[in-house]
Design brief:
This protein has 311 residues and is of the alpha/beta class. It folds into 3 domains: 1-84, Multidrug-efflux Transporter Regulator, Chain: A, Domain 2; 94-170, Methyltransferase, Methionine Synthase (B12-binding Domains), Chain A, domain 1; 175-308, Cobalamin-binding domain (Rossmann fold, 3-Layer(aba) Sandwich), CATH 3.40.50.280. It has 14 helices and 7 strands. The strands form 2 sheets. The protein has a 5-stranded parallel β-sheet with strand order 4-3-5-6-7, sandwiched between helices. A two-stranded antiparallel sheet has the order 1-2. α9 (194-205) runs parallel beside α13 (284-290). The longest helix is centred in the middle third of the chain and has 21 residues, at 127-147. The two termini are 20 Å apart.
Length: 311
């Protein structure tokens, strides 16, 4: 599966929101340690890449382990120079050990240990890789174990609440995207929105502005919000097909108002054809990367032309 990091670059304010570090501190790390390597936009703005974000997260992990700022920066830069053989690019088997450690700690209801394991993963791998290759498989496996009676409701609630909290942190500031606006929601009755959260996080990292309505959203409210926000696309996700039943006509009207995409195990090609929507069939991370990423120079009108052309 493609592990390519989105090429969209961001300004320092957005980078700071993503990693939870002030602009002042980021500039100091760039100046003192060479941790960041921005490029200049045609307008003269400093733009930062996914590689800059990875180096910051590595430095944060080393700071948490007790290293000084200078030592943490040097360690982060050394790990990058070590290259793919050290398992730091988000590909290959380098993620297996840390991912298993996270799963074990979640299963033991070990909150501090699970947080530390997540910190290690995010410091060493791209956000996209962690979401797609660690969190999604773990949540699917946990759901299967719960259905077989091998995991309790407490197990499921503990893991879901902890991971939701971390995802909410990654989602911070996603309304600041410079590109087209996406409204994300689940239809009435649908409570499972973890995949939709991941979709929104990656979509924002591809340059989008995200407005998140979340679980069990009435279609009339969704349509009203789409009009008010001048949305460029609405993505509606459900894990259960029944939650789309009874709203087919509403979805068809919504699709005439704004481009509509359906996602999740409950969405079918037949429903998409009937309502005039587009069906998203891959995992949330892959679909967000496929949904026509935007560049710093592209506006919503340019994106809408590409959507209409089906590219």
């Amino acid at each position: 599966m493609d592990q390519q990091i989105p090429s969209a670059r961001v300004r320092i304010g957005e980078l700071g929101r993503r990693v939870g570090v002030s602009e002042h501190v980021l500039r100091a790390w760039e100046r003192r340690y060479g941790l960041l390597r921005p490029e200049r936009s045609p307008g003269g703005y400093r733009l930062y890449s996914a590689a800059d974000e990875r180096r910051i997260r590595r430095m944060q992990a080393h700071l948490a382990a007790g290293l000084s700022a200078a030592e943490a920066a040097q360690a982060a830069l050394s790990e990058e120079r070590a290259g793919p053989a050290q398992g730091r690019t988000g590909t290959g088997g380098g993620m297996t050990g840390p991912a298993q450690d996270l799963a074990d700690r979640l299963d033991r209801l070990d909150e501090p240990g699970a947080q530390a394991a997540l910190d290690q993963l995010l410091a060493g791998f791209s956000v996209e890789a962690v979401l797609r290759d660690t969190l999604l498989p773990y949540l699917h496996h946990l759901g299967d174990r719960w259905e077989r009676g091998q995991a309790s409701i407490a197990d499921e609630h503990f893991a879901s609440n902890l991971l939701r909290g971390r995802l909410a942190g990654l989602a911070r500031g996603w309304g600041y995207g410079h590109g087209p606006c996406a409204i994300l929601a689940c239809p009435p009755g649908e409570q499972h929105d973890m995949g939709l959260l991941m979709f929104g996080i990656v979509l924002h990292r591809c340059g989008w502005q995200v407005e998140y309505l979340g679980a069990s959203t009435p279609i009339a409210e969704l349509a009203r919000t789409a009009r008010q926000a001048h949305a460029d696309v609405v993505v509606l996700a459900a894990a259960v097909k029944d939650h789309f039943d009874g709203v087919t006509d509403d979805l068809a009207r919504l699709a005439r108002q704004v481009p509509l995409a359906l996602a999740g195990a409950g969405a079918t090609q037949a429903l998409a054809d009937e309502t005039g929507a587009r069906l998203l069939t891959a995992d949330p991370v892959t679909e967000a990367q496929r949904l026509l990423p935007v560049s710093a120079e592209e506006g919503a009108a340019d994106w809408a032309v590409r959507w209409a052309a089906g590219r």
